[in-house]
Write a structure and sequence with these properties.
With 202 residues, the protein is mainly alpha-helical. It has a domain of 131 residues: Orthogonal Bundle (Actin-binding Protein, T-fimbrin, domain 1), CATH 1.10.418. The chain is built from eight helices and no strands.
Length: 202
Amino acid sequence: MAKRMTGYGLTADIHRKRKEQYNNEIYREQEARLWIEDVTGVKLGEERNTPLTWDGLHNHLKDGTVLCKLINTLSPGSVGKINTSPINFHMIENIGKFLSAIEKYGVAKEDQFNTPDLFENVNMLAVVNTLHALGRAAQKKNYQGSVLGPKEADYNPRNFDEEVLNKGQTVIGLQAGSNKGASQSGMSFGRTRSINEPYVSS
């Protein structure tokens, strides 16, 4: 696999900050990893209680096969054929199939990582965030197996009748302030000083 060149300047700084945040939230990686293992039955790493870390998670997920098995378990038939070939094109294709499948499953586009984030090991933090978003979607779909993270709230629109809406327009919110008891009586700021006036020390 072609190796991405080391970034310099701002690129390197962004990458360093992402890794720092990843390490500070390593428990989120561990939660996602254990969830994947429980749902798919695929073992990621030897020690279940030891975090995989940024590079470890990348090594286990970069070919996309585990991710495709994950979405196929949550929603059977989501990915038709999973490529097992070590050719880069096939790995990238697997990742693309996974992303398309989870979007149909209910994970918003803005909650998904981009293919290079995983395949080129650019942003594993985004990968972990996507897995958590998928976990929330699985709970919303009432998946009966292992869960990841809190359940996402359901859409609950409020419908008010015309009378209630009209009453709301007569109320002055506290953000608008109040003029009760306010007056400028007795307030004096004295004579304003002109910019051209010479300064006289007292």
